[in-house]
Amino acid sequence: MTSTTPVTITSSSAPDRIEIDQEKLAETLEYIRPAVQADGGDLILLGTEGGTVNIQMVGACGGCPLSMMTLKAGIERILIDRVPGVDEVNASADAPALEENVASAESGGITLPGHLMASPDLI
Fold first, then answer.
1. Is the pTM of this model over 0.85?
2. Which residues pair with 44 in a beta bridge?
């Protein structure tokens, strides 16, 4: 009976990693930002690590169930295409903050976002 030994082939040299061009990254985020802001959100650059860009999606993006699709299909694709060194984009999404003490007798004791309280006709 013969036995076989699995063989693993590895490269003797690690591929050279291209550093993320921080200036190009900032320019590209400014290019993307108006589209995100048009939907009531915004992007905050948290930093980079290796080929990964870490951003925070805030405002309307923070509570939007489609924000991760926007991230992968839009933001990540654009950053990878336009910024040398970007391999991946990770995002944290924070829900939009509600103003404190907006629950009142007018709203039946229900806490409503501040923009609804400012326009009671919308309720």
1. no
2. 56
